[in-house]
Amino acid sequence: MYRIQQAVDKIKKDIMGKSVLEVACGTADFSVAASEFAEHVDCIDLDDFRLNSVVAKCPNITFERMDATALRFANGTYDTAVVYNALAHLETVIDRVVSECLRVVKLGGNIYFISSFSMDKYTIENKFLPHLSDIKLDYAVFNDKTFTYVQINKQQ
Fold this sequence. Notes:
Layout: H1 2-10, E1 19-23, H2 29-34, E2 40-45, E3 61-65, E4 78-84, H3 94-104, E5 105-115, H4 118-134, E6 140-143, E7 148-153
Parallel strand pairs: 1-2, 1-4, 2-3, 4-5
Antiparallel strand pairs: 5-7, 6-7
């Protein structure tokens, strides 16, 4: 859990007291760590077989089975959306995932793609960042010893 806490601490200002969405949550360990600071965390995945049982005990986390390319949330619902260690799993649909995240995040909100996986880092460098450039979307990339973070601030 330390590694996840490290990632949460890095983006804490965009989670603290805010509405957060974790896309393709898997175990939802990121959601559990973020729930300590967020007002509310919604986490979604196609299935729940990997879901950490702690999620059910967190009063400010809601899990839903949902396709990341067809989010059932209203426009501008969230302050922050996070895709944590899932980019390579979404590689073939990343354009639609980005589009959906942009739709459900409020103006001025942020979308973070955070990864410590080498397969995600390859996808980030060779597919994801070129895609963001192709669609002329501004982004920032920063790294620490464990993670690569891609931040998109919704400006329009």
